[in-house]
Write a structure and sequence with these properties.
about 45 residues, mainly alpha
């Protein structure tokens, strides 16, 4: 069932606040940067 999120108390109290999502945002930012550096540096894994 789809409900109106603007009336959902959990959504308003936790998800809407930006500091609740900041950890995931920064983790994704750092992870993307690391992947970019690895792909552009052409690292070779040794056996």
């Amino acid at each position: 069932e789809i409900e109106d999120l603007s009336s959902n108390e959990y959504f308003l109290s936790s998800y809407v606040k930006t500091h609740m999502r900041a950890n995931a945002y920064f983790f994704g930012l750092i992870y993307g940067y690391i992947l970019y550096r690895i792909q552009s540096a052409d690292y070779k894994l040794t056996k």
